[in-house]
Design a protein that fits this description.
Layout lengths: L1 E2 L5 E2 L1 E5 L28 H13 L4 E5 L9 H9 L6 E6 L8 H7 L3 E5 L5 H8 L4 H13 L3 E8 L8 H7 L6 E6 L17 H11 L3 E4 L8 E5 L5 E5 L12 E4 L4 E3 L8 E2 H6 L4 H12 L6 H7 L8 H4 L2
Parallel strand pairs: 3-4, 3-12, 4-5, 5-6, 6-7, 7-8, 8-11
Antiparallel strand pairs: 1-2, 9-10, 10-11, 12-13, 13-14
The structure holds S-adenosylmethionine.
The site of S-adenosylmethionine has 22 residues, from strand 5, strand 7 and helix 11.
């Protein structure tokens, strides 16, 4: 079992399979000139499988595949087939922009990979296309509908962006009213590849909640797992729920159970920290599982207590883009 230096059990791995994405969300990265990793610097599928297995042996039982956009990797399903059978791994989930998932929906269901987070920052097509800088709205909406109809456990991630999508907050709740879906509203963070710097946000989770209750006063807070980053609510008369994720306010660090590994092998123990070791280099160098395990134990044993502590410690943390961290 992995226990960090603040006595938090670490059992959740967010594993990025690529840093490439087919969208260009303006709050995540600049439109051009992104420094994507060279292909040979990315983990291969065999390496991703091996790293996952080692981490599962150490106590990870929940693994989320992220990116970049995971489905831009043509070999992604090979990894997912292996993970879905991995002993000790109870939950394999995916975070996706839902542009390329369509051909894989049936197989995902067969593999039992049913927890899918879909990023959707607008319900109105022009707003979506302005934010993502790509014309993929119809495909995303179609795939989202297929996932919901197919019985997947779908959560929508909606990043609340000042001057961009506030007008879509009420409509997305209206649109999802009759579906068993959780719409989670996240605070914007400055991980955008340096394209926009800020040290405060106007739309924090309290203001988002105030905005939601201005239209839906009849809400009830519902219980959430202890390690959940989202504060969840039900609106009277709605089938699904909504959640608020204080990703910039960082109210949830005390119960954080996460570890991140990027597609190039960097281990990140807090979203607001810099990488502390690189597993790809170990795999391609001495190739010692024991050394990887030691490095993980070392990383977990020196985590910042909170995202604020990490931010204060590491300079230039906001130069990076969420597309390389994995969200
Ligand atoms: N491509 C996949 C997707 O769209 O969900 C997975 C990777 S994406 C980097 C993971 C999540 O990070 C998405 O929900 C995205 O909206 C979120 N994200 C990206 N940049 C962000 C930022 N600056 N602040 C908050 N969330 C961000």
């Amino acid at each position: 079992m992995l226990i960090d230096n603040h006595n938090r059990k670490i059992n959740y791995l967010r594993l990025a399979v690529t840093d490439r994405c087919n969208l260009r969300c303006n709050y995540c990265m600049p439109s051009e000139g992104i420094d994507f990793a060279k292909k040979d610097k990315l983990f291969t599928i065999a390496e991703l499988t091996k790293v996952s297995r080692i981490l599962v042996e150490q106590g990870i039982d929940k693994l989320r595949i992220t990116g970049g956009e995971p489905f831009v990797r043509k070999d992604l399903m090979i990894l997912l087939r292996g993970l879905s059978k991995m002993e000790g791994l109870n939950d394999v989930s995916i975070t996706t922009n839902a542009t390329l998932i369509g051909p894989h929906i049936d197989e995902l269901k067969e593999l039992g990979i049913t927890n899918i987070n879909v990023s959707l920052d607008a319900i109105e097509k022009t707003t979506f296309e302005r934010i993502t800088r790509r014309n993929q709205y119809d495909t995303v909406y179609d795939n989202l509908t297929r996932l919901i109809a197919g019985g997947f456990n779908v959560r929508i991630n909606f990043i609340v962006l000042e001057n961009q999508n506030i007008q879509d907050i009420h409509p997305i709740l209206d649109a999802m009213k009759n579906y068993d879906v959780s719409v989670r509203f996240l605070e914007e963070m400055p991980f955008n590849g340096g394209s926009k710097k800020f040290s405060a946000i106007k739309w924090d989770y309290k203001r988002i909640l105030g905005h939601i209750t201005s239209k839906y006063p009849d809400i009830e807070e519902i219980s959430s797992p202890k390690t959940s980053t989202s504060i969840n609510y039900k609106i009277k008369g709605h089938v699904g729920t909504f959640g608020l994720i204080p990703s910039f306010s960082r109210t949830f660090c005390g119960s954080c159970n996460r570890l991140r590994i990027t597609a190039t092998g960097d281990v990140i123990t807090c979203l607001y920290a810099r990488p502390c070791t690189n597993l790809r280099d170990i795999l391609r160098g001495e190739n010692s599982e024991e050394r990887i395990k030691q490095q993980i134990i070392k990383a977990v044993g020196s985590r910042a207590a909170t995202g604020f502590e990490a931010q204060a410690k590491y300079e230039r943390v906001f130069d990076s883009s969420m597309t390389s961290i994995g969200g």
